[in-house]
Amino acid sequence: MMSATGSSNIFWHECPVGKVDRQKLLNQQGCVVWITGLSGSGKSTLACSLDRELHSKGKLSYILDGDNVRHGLNKNLGFKPEDRTENIRRVGEVAKLFADAGLICIASLISPYRDDRDACRAMLQDPNFVEVFMNMPLEVCEGRDPKGLYKLARAGKIKGFTGIDDPYEPPLNCEIEIKQKDGVCPAPSEMAVQVVSYLDQKGFLQA
Ligand SMILES: Nc1ncnc2c1ncn2[C@@H]1O[C@H](COP(=O)(O)OS(=O)(=O)O)[C@@H](OP(=O)(O)O)[C@H]1O
Ligand SMILES: Nc1ncnc2c1ncn2[C@@H]1O[C@H](COP(=O)(O)OP(=O)(O)O)[C@@H](O)[C@H]1O
């Protein structure tokens, strides 16, 4: 069946197998876990740990990592505000496709601007967009500095580095916040368990 969309001469093609059918096959609900936070806050670490945890439970997930996507789909984008916005928009659209495929899509990007993340939330419709805020102090992220980028940013060798001379707008209403307890960051497996518990409680881990 075909129906017209807002764009002229472009039609939406419906197929007989839908999201619900795919979800039944996978025994899970397609959704997006969107991990946001400063560079070095542990986004990729949580993404990998969560992916492993879900895999061990027989759940199908897939990671879209900012660094990795910038090697291909988004290789033409830099870090100017409009490029970051386009980066988030594209990843949001791809994540939406993965969720429609029935997967638990884990998007791991700095995604510094609230409006861009909210646009992805609106694209996915609320319950299917789970925003995870890596609420780590800048000093912790900068102290880790695994790629040496903060050092370069402090030396003025990278301009517009998030948290140094470019803004990070923390979420106002995220579903999950990962933060230090008594000055100690939870272990990667603990962070993953926190997210899996949320997904389980909300019914995403069954059809
Ligand atoms: N100017 C500037 N600001 C922030 N980050 C920078 C910059 N230049 C390069 N990098 C590296 O790019 C990684 C972030 O890419 P993202 O796609 O997640 O960024 S964004 O969401 O579009 O803001 C980020 O990776 P992570 O450390 O994994 O966050 C950095 O390694
Ligand atoms: N929960 C954690 N406890 C201790 N170290 C961590 C934790 N999460 C991440 N790290 C370390 O911090 C550094 C940055 O983590 P990473 O996942 O690459 O962050 P991001 O993807 O946000 O840039 C890495 O060296 C990683 O091993």
From TrEMBL:
The protein's matches in CDD domains, at most eight in alphabetical order, are given as: APSK
Print the keywords alphabetically: Amino-acid biosynthesis, ATP-binding, Cysteine biosynthesis, Kinase, Nucleotide-binding, Transferase
Q: Name one GO cellular component term.
A: cytoplasm
Q: Does the keyword Acetylation apply?
A: no
Q: Report the pathway entry.
A: Sulfur metabolism; hydrogen sulfide biosynthesis; sulfite from sulfate: step 2/3
Query: What InterPro entries does the annotation carry?
Result: APS, APS_kinase_dom, P-loop_NTPase
Give the EC number(s) listed in the UniProt record. 2.7.1.25
Task: Kindly indicate whether the keyword GTP-binding belongs to this entry.
Answer: no
Pfam families per record:
APS_kinase
The APS kinase domain extends over 29-179
Q: Name one GO biological process term.
A: sulfate assimilation
Q: Which family does it belong to?
A: Belongs to the APS kinase family.
* Function of the molecule: Catalyzes the synthesis of activated sulfate.
Q: What is this protein called?
A: Adenylyl-sulfate kinase
Species annotation: Daucus carota subsp. sativus (Carrot)
